[in-house]
Model the fold of this input.
Amino acid sequence: MHSVKHIGKVILAGAGPGDPELLTLKALRHLQQADVVIADRLVSPVILSEYTRKDALVIPVGKQCRSGASTPQTAINDLMVEHALQGKRVVRLKGGDISIFSNVLDELTTLVKYSIPYELVPGVTAALGAAAYAGIPLTARGYSTAVRFLTAYRQDLLDTAYWQDLARTEDTLVFYMSSQPIDELVGQLVCHDVPEDRWVAVIEQATTPQQCITAFPVKEYLAAAKGRDYASPSLIVIGRVAALHASFGWKAEMGNGELYFPPVVEQIVKKKLVC
Done:
């Protein structure tokens, strides 16, 4: 009789925004069972060193804006397939949540193509973690009843009508991957008559020991902070609720400017897989 080839399984899991204690119990259980962990850059080093099996193979597949060292998505897809087809249990560990500004669709499509079993495990996304650790309730009563998750990474795709809507909306706006073009972002909102009571809060390295927050009224931001560089990752919250940080920010800012997440050029130490 011919032996039936055993195919492993891939778990696509969110690691949360930085604080390792925000990892879900379900993700922790899968990590403790995994033969291989394919990890994004924005995953706490503590999770990889303390929450995985000692004999697991940890593969860093970091991505970083404008970094030539970033791992191509095709390479990540190939790694999942390679190890799963060897019968291994693989955890594809993503920073934050698996479905917010991630390439999970590419990965799901690849797994389906090769008939590889998979499971999806959500995580605390950066917007929720950053807002909570900054003391900013995103839908505070009387301030906002809706939240939008956006990115201004490609501002050339945003037309005048869209900017007008963003400037005048009552919704809380949360921008991912937008700290580099923040001056242009704020400038567009001011140009399109953003109300005086709207604030902007930039939350650097949210939920980590290096968390740092910069907050101003939107119309005062360029005079106060134009040209400022922010550590990666940074999240931007714009709306009435951003002003609440001054009253309810509870986490002491003890950051010294160092990066909590290793840059892509630095490789996470791999642990040997015992066959």
